[in-house]
Amino acid sequence: MRHFLLIQMLLVISCTNIKHQPDEIFQLQNQKVARSKNGVVTTAHPLATHAAVEILAAGGNAMDAAVAAAFTLSVVEPSMSGIGGRAQILIYNPADGVHGIDATTQAPSYYKFDDTLGVEYGYQTIAVPGVVKGLTDGLQNYGTLPLAQVMNPAIAYANNGYKLLPGEALRQRSVNEFLKEFAGTRQYYLDKDSLTYDAGKLIIQQDLGKVLKAISDNGPDVFYQGWIAETMVKDVRENGGFLTLESLKNYRSEKSHIVNGSYRGYSIKALWLPAYGAITIEALQILEQLQFNMIEERERGLAIFHAVESAYLDRKEQKTLDDAYRFTSKSWAKMRALENPIFNRNDSINVNPGSIKDPNGHTSHLTVIDKNGMIVCLTQTIGPTMGSKVVTPGLGFLYAQTMGGYLGEVEPNLRVPSHISPIIIFKDEKPFLAIGAAGGSRIPSSIVNIVSNIIDKRMTLSEALYFPRVHPSENIINLEVVDGKRWNDSDSIYFSQKGYTVEMNRLPAKFGRIHAVMLDTITGEWVGCADQDWEGTALSP
After folding, report:
1. Measuring CA to CA, which residue among 244, 24, 254, 219 is closest to residue 140?
2. Could you tell me which residues are beta bridge partners of residue 539?
């Protein structure tokens, strides 16, 4: 449920040393909105948000804070992301504009797709992790503080412990049977009764703390070439996987190509492949072309449905930069809009759900802006809940699920696209909205919903995040049901009478999880907001 919480909790934050108090986690969960001219942080977990704010308060910039938060999430929200996974980072630096970092997992050189057909988890799905390289390169190129300082919160929570949140406990319990299959995963995630830990349990991860400390002290080389790399390869190869020392040593984070678009006078910056920024831009630009009444909610809902539905037809067609320019052009959006039936239709466009399976929960997104206007939008993931379900004994982190068909056919040494799509929207060449999401194929659609709420309906950021969303999947218009708002049974009847197949969804966190920052043009403050359907928070220094 997306009940808008009016609770604003008093939080006194130390400017120098993070206080690793496990109990504070329960005191921070309701802090969903924050505003300040001195920077704002919003992440998927209160301790990660707290860690980032501490870094800002200590004089760090947005990249310093984002890296601190991302490493902390690796510890406290392992079901969604971690150092065994992949990341996409979008950066706005007032001095030199927009940049991107691609740290997607990469198939090892000896990987054979045909050998893993039908494999949905386990050692054969493990590719070269990218998060460590992406975060450390981001810090080196755009940060100001030492790696040891920004990693300190994550290390402390691993070594000293944190209390497991109810949502995280539930997600881990949902894949309990899969976790039993692997010795390392049993060691770290199952209690004596062979069940995952209950909410409120103090979780101490000393092996993960040892790994993080090694990275903190020695940099990423220890992960990709040192004893951590050797431990990973030995375990993965002994259990039928494809990881090699060569593939780890040769891994690099890459500079992302920035794609551009606009929506109703606002300009948009996003990431090209392996992110889906072009698809998100395309959907917004199709929406701009559709002749719907954007004030009337049912028509606007249909417009969003049609726009995303049409843009998703191009997901598998993204290959070269020529495709990037084509799919983000206004002419292409106009063509797609003209193709799209409007009212009184009997069928929707035949939309393939795409190469990405659509599990209910995976991925984590965070957004940070500092007092100088630097913005970092960072999305990281290990794939579906608990990723590959594999942990190497002695290391303590989960590997992402990458191969085996989850992301489609993967070729050796290549990276496969996903729906990850952080974007930054500008008004009059100044940042206005920085936004990203978690949730698989619902990432672009959730962003389109929120952007339309803000620009078309003039909602505040918190109103926009708490307003029910629309999503197309397999010829179905999916409607999020939220008490006291839309959508309801009368809406379902209306859409059905128009020839649509309708699915009403009352479960939380099924329509993407947003963490965004927006400029209040009246006060000049930045407003951060965390999605009501998750454990995330928003705080300011």
Report:
1. 219
2. 41
